[in-house]
Amino acid sequence: MKGTIIVGGLSGTTSRVAACKLSSLSCTALRSPKMSNLAGVAMDKAGNCYADASDTSGKVGLWYYARCAKAGVELGSAQGFNEPNYGGLSVDNEGNIVVISTGFPSAVTVYSGCAKARCSVISGPFVLNGESIFGHLGRDNQRWVTVNIDGGTVDVYAYVGHGTGLTYLYSFDVPGCTPSGFCESAAYSPGSPKV
Question: In terms of Cα–Cα distance, which of 88, 80, 9, 74 is closest to 42?
Answer without folding.
Answer: 88
